Amino acid sequence: MELRHLRYFLAVAEEGHFGRAAKRLNIVQPALSMQIKALEEELGGALFIRTSRRVELTDAGRLMQAEAQRTLAQADHAQLAVARAMRGETGRVRVGFAGNAIFSGKLIADLRRFHQTYPDAELVISEVAPQQQLAAIATGQLDIGYMPATSKTDAPGIVAQSLGQWGILVALHDQHPLTVHTSITIDMLAAQPLILYEAHDDQEQLFLTLSHKLGADLQVAHRSGSTLSVLAIAATGLGVALVPAPLRQVTIPGLVYRRLDDADLNANLMLVSRAQEPNAAAAAYLALSSQPSA
Q1: Where is the HTH lysR-type domain (predicted)?
Q2: N or C end of the chain: smaller count of CB under 10 Å?
């Protein structure tokens, strides 16, 4: 028994006539009669009572009608569900973000556009440190990552797309002596206890640039993977933090921002994903994120 047999059967049941059913199905009547007869033989009994003018369902035929309608409806549902999943309209996209992503506006814009375009797809959003994002994407635990460029983003199987670049701010306690300046130079940071993101480890460009310019006067007092932790440590007065310029919109009691006057230091944001993406929903997300904003 195949789905087409069920469709043939339902056409005859609904039309009550082999000729009209054959016309509706766009096949010749003898072929339709042969298919119905084969179906009845397979089931072991009559589905129709045939008269000279019309055909009527037997009790078994009425049962078959209900089951055929249910089976064909489920088949249509399965076909639609799989097709939607292949187009990325359903499924799950796991998005990780770190640092500047949420304050730059790009992350929120991408998430909102995807949700509006594919409302039946599930978004799982979590703050994840950059190094952990890369490992999670490579192992399939995350699909998309928003993070600053690191020495590990240029890895096999990983695609990193630049989303933007911003200046650096110095975040510090409002009673700090450096707050008298409207902008701060690198030389002013000499011997100051610095607060950096964990992503800026000893192999990253920001740390290397600071090392080159400050030499022995570079003092890294704290590192944190969380933006709010970095700002909280600075507000407490335990050091001065170097943060991306979009964080200026984050207001924390006792914390002020000053521009870092140095063109060699900047913050960036990358969209990181797998080179070969098996998740259709994630592929749809990437396609939308690459489109220009309306």
Answers
A1: 1-58
A2: C
Mapped onto helix, strand or coil, the DSSP state of residue 251 is coil
CB–CB of 149/268 below 8 Å? yes
Residue range 200-251, pLDDT digits in tens: 665 577 888 888 899 999 999 998 878 889 999 999 999 999 999 999 989 9
**Could you report the per-residue pLDDT of 37-89, keeping only the tens digit for each?**
999 999 999 999 988 778 899 999 999 999 999 998 888 878 877 777 777 77
This prediction's pTM? 0.69
Q: Give the tokens for residue 80.
A: 């639609």
How are beta strands 92-97 and 122-127 bridged, if at all? Answer: parallel
Nearest to 61 by CA among 81, 84, 72, 45: 45
Which is it for strands 183-184 and 255-260: parallel, antiparallel or unpaired? parallel
Check if the beta carbon of residue 246 is closer than 8 Å to that of residue 166.
yes
* Gyration radius of the chain over CA positions: 32
Q: What's the mean pLDDT in 265-292? A: 89
Burial letters 263-275, b for 16+ CB under 10 A, else e: eebbbbbbbbbbe
